[in-house]
Specification:
It is a single chain. The chain is built from 17 helices and 11 strands. The chain is an alpha/beta fold and about 400 residues long. The protein folds into 4 domains: about 1-100, no CATH class; about 105-145; about 150-235 and about 365-405, Ribonuclease H-like superfamily/Ribonuclease H (Nucleotidyltransferase, domain 5), CATH 3.30.420; about 240-360. The strands form 2 sheets. Strands 1, 2, 3, 4, 5 and 6 form a 6-stranded mixed sheet that branches. The protein has a 5-stranded mixed sheet with strand order 9-8-7-10-11, with helices on both faces. A hairpin with a 2-residue loop joins strand 1 and strand 2 (about 30-40). The two termini are about 50 Å apart.
């Protein structure tokens, strides 16, 4: 038994190497092992000034959780002394392997933190045997350390979008660096003064250096950008324009659907997806189905051609040709006289300056849509009463963790 403990001692002296302490002994009880450390210096580090200073006779015993050794849970016990430093500090010494008041070593906290982006707090708790509140505190602490603050960033192009975080029209405003596709700021709500908060935090000088702002046609965001980014060109995302046109097409389909007999209604209802999808993305069978339907309904056919036309325009590479074709499309809408499309045209005409800028720069907000997908995954995993808590600030921090600028 003595030889076995000697082998363990050699191993543990290698594993448990901490500044100012060395391995002393261990005690194993069933599936738990306790490691005891002893001090090897008579001085300690002052947490205020960083100097080495003499120890006092005051200390307290600490036991913290460390990385498991195989299937054994591991705990480390040591004495933490108080120091009286020349700088005036009176308190406990600074230790390199454990944070003040923490019940885990730093290396175990880092292991816990590595799990947090991949699973919920309850899942991490089941693996680590730590309370979910302790895990949350660890996650917050290390995430705050890794996030690059807005004051250290210099965005030249930004994408602005909103995402619902809860039912009842509760939104977050998400601002990303459009060049890097990383979240740089999150605000609660989607009002003008919400986005004003971003520009106020960024500062007048950096805000004036923003050249492009990509967003949908949301007036509060537009007003905020115009007030703070005097040199920025506003670009409206082409997907929102196409979405508006698709809605107009669907409104025409519904109107025709209401006039059709029962058999035609069933037929048209099943083919909604075929009508709204780009023709070039349809299978040969779907194209044949679409052609049959278009031959039967002239109004729906004209509406469908308008939808296909606008989608083709946004695929056009040449700026001047895009604008020429867009003017043709607007005239075609007027000629058809379809009310849903005339309403859509009015909206597009009001916001045409941002659409024109799209043809100039060819930048979309697709990156924001990708980020929104990630955010929805985080929301299901880390936010909501289903998990026993509802913490919006933590949810926002998890967004920065997954989608933000990190060190």
């Amino acid at each position: 038994m003595g030889a076995k403990r000697y082998k363990y001692a050699i191993l543990f002296r290698t594993i448990f190497v901490f500044r100012g302490f060395v391995y002393n002994e261990f005690i194993q009880k069933e599936d738990i092992i306790h490691i005891f450390l002893k001090r090897k210096r008579k001085t300690a580090t002052c947490p205020n000034c960083g100097r080495r200073t003499n120890l006092t006779t005051e200390y307290y015993k600490r036991t913290v959780k460390d990385l498991n050794i195989g299937i054994l849970e591991c705990y480390i016990t040591f004495h933490q002394n108080k120091v009286h430093c020349k700088c005036g500090f009176r308190g406990h010494e600074k230790l390199s392997f454990v944070r003040p008041y923490s019940r885990c070593t730093i290396r175990y906290e880092q292991f816990v933190f590595s799990l947090c982006p991949k699973m919920s707090l309850s899942d991490v708790s089941s693996i680590t045997n730590l309370d979910w509140k302790t895990i949350k505190e660890i996650d917050i602490h290390y995430t705050m350390e890794m996030i690059v603050p807005l004051r250290d960033l210099n965005p030249k192009s930004i994408g602005i979008d909103e995402i619902a975080y809860e039912k009842g029209h509760k939104y977050l405003t998400i601002v990303r660096n459009a060049d890097l596709n990383e979240v740089i700021w999150i605000g609660i709500d989607r009002k003008e003064n919400t986005l004003d908060g971003f520009f106020n935090e960024l500062g007048v000088e950096k805000s004036s250096k923003i050249k492009l702002a990509v967003m949908d046609m949301w007036d509060p965001y537009i007003a905020s950008v115009k007030n703070h980014c005097l040199n920025a060109e506003i670009i409206f995302d082409k997907f929102h324009v196409v979405k508006a046109v698709n809605k107009a097409l669907d409104d025409v389909r519904k109107k025709e659907f209401a006039k059709a007999d029962e058999e035609q209604r069933i037929d048209m209802k099943r083919k909604r997806f075929v009508i709204l999808r780009r023709k070039k993305n349809l299978s040969p069978n779907q194209i044949e189905t679409l052609d049959d339907m278009m031959r039967e309904n002239d109004t729906l056919y004209r509406a469908y051609l308008l939808k296909e036309h606008i989608a083709d325009i946004f695929d056009e590479e040449d700026e001047s040709e895009s604008l020429r074709r867009f003017n043709d499309w607007k005239q075609n809408v007027i000629d058809t006289g379809l009310k849903p499309f005339l309403g859509c045209l009015k909206t597009i005409t009001n916001y045409f300056y941002g659409i024109e800028n799209y043809f100039k720069h060819k930048i979309t907000n697709a990156g924001s849509e990708g980020i929104n997908t990630k955010i929805n995954i985080i929301k299901r995993r880390a936010y909501g009463r289903a998990y026993g808590y509802s913490d919006l600030n933590y949810f926002m921090l998890k967004i920065y963790q997954a989608c933000g600028v990190v060190r």
